[in-house]
Amino acid sequence: MPKVLPGYQQEARKRIIVTAVETFSEIGFHQTTMEDIAKRLGVSKAAIYSYFKNKEELIDAIGEATLHTLKEELDSLFKGRLSTDSFLEWAMSIIEMKIEDIKKYSSLHFEVLIEASRNVSLRRMLKENIRKATIIVAGLLEEEKRKRCIRQELNTRPLALGLIALFFGLRQVLLTGIGDEEVSQAWRELMKAVARS
User: CA distances (Å), 76 to each of 71, 100, 161, 166, in order?
Assistant: First the structure.
């Protein structure tokens, strides 16, 4: 097995992160070893450790990558929106875009939350990622408020945190077998409450 990943460091980090997500999702966070990830990549365990000290660092990197992707996706949806599009249509496009990811990675999400209940440093990392996601979503909601697309009396920071919590809750609902359509309808009804009437 080669000792180092071919290619540039940034690309190698991305490959490790993607493979870690796949491995954690299939085997489970707690059961996955760094060696499992290395084997899937066809590299030595030392190569993985040269990028990440442990699984917690990997989870943190996954969180950062997820935040980066979230920001890009939301910005893309936001910028691609015509002024005549309603806030509700925009909000629905978010859930439709993410529903497959939600289903695919829900079990990993819950495993990480369970692990965080026992692991203080992991809990701190998750808290920081939620704080960053809240800032991203609140910024987009502020823009919607400026456009008068959502109710003016809404406080966007707690609303953003509430929407993130709702999104996490939808993951749980999907795991129980409730259908995509019901989840989409629940999201729509809640977004109607936020939208300017």
Answer: 8, 18, 21, 22
